[in-house]
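tool=predict chain=A
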Amino acid sequence: MKKYISLFITMFKIGLFTFGGGYAMIALLENEFVAKRKYLSSDEFMDLVAIAESTPGPIAINCSTYIGYKVGGFFGALLGTIGMCIPSFVIIYVISLFFNQFLEIEWVASAFKGIQVGIIFVILSASIMMLKNIKKSVFNITIVVLTVVLSVLFSIFAISFSAIFYILISGLLGLIIYLIGYINSKNSSKGDKSE
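tool=predict ok
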């Protein structure tokens, strides 16, 4: 019971104090569940982020559901998801009631401008952490470099290209590379048997 309460409170805290969406939460989730509590290894967390990004739904919810399941099965997944969702739901609901009046308050508008700058740092921090933990293969480095170069070029020339396409294309390329390696290993094992 204690681990369920701890999981819920941790997810609630992350959901309450993280601005900037799911990508901003990645660094906090990694710090809490990989570095501090050791519920996941770095490799497992990288796989989790890749899967959470590739599946439908917000990345933070997908991550919290998986982490909750890993910690406490079905009820862990349920509590992790609820803990992550409640703060955002309540805050957005309250803001929606007073949205126009809320933005007219000068200190609130200034706070949001400051938060936007902080969010850039949090997302960059999560990106650097993931870049450090990625396996350094020719394929992975090529994908990272191509994605960064294309993102910058598309931004400079104002070409609209969704981040989802980067993920889908990278996944497809990874699958193709895997299949080529698999076919080559099957062919080489058949060649060994025939000798």
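The two ends are 60 Å apart (CA to CA). Residues 1-134 form one domain.
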